[in-house]
Specification:
Layout lengths: L3 H13 L4 H11 L4 H14 L4 H13 L5 H10 L20 H11 L3
Helix pairs in contact: 1-2, 1-3, 3-5
């Protein structure tokens, strides 16, 4: 069973960042409810398509603020369904990875074994 905090967090992100609203609507239509890990991965793909968009920095700061701290479930959600989807490129640090906050960047390095 998915913790309610993850459902609330992913839905709340779409209310906080209007750029995510269409993804949330489509997700609800396709799934009949919120599947936080799938929705977070959709958010990641959107961010990867437009890392230079003005809202992306604020969204990543929002994720950083909620990573490693308040909720173990949120930490896992952000790690597994967002950070883990940011595959390293040839430079080992893609455009979105460069924008991550300190804790999320450390998690990315840990996941991919980057020193």
């Amino acid at each position: 069973m998915t913790p309610a905090v993850c459902v609330a967090f992913t839905a709340g992100a779409a209310f906080k960042f209007k750029q995510l609203e269409d993804l949330l609507s489509e997700h609800l239509k396709d799934n009949g409810g919120i599947l936080p890990h799938l929705l977070m991965a959709d958010y990641c793909r959107l961010v990867e398509r437009a890392p230079d968009d003005e809202w992306v920095g604020s969204f990543l700061a929002y994720l950083e603020d909620n990573f490693s701290g308040q909720s173990e479930s949120l930490t896992e959600l952000i790690s597994v369904s967002f950070i883990e989807h940011l595959l390293p490129d040839e430079s080992l640090c893609g455009p979105v990875v460069k924008l991550l906050g300190k804790r999320m960047r450390e998690e990315h390095r840990h996941i991919f074994g980057i020193e």
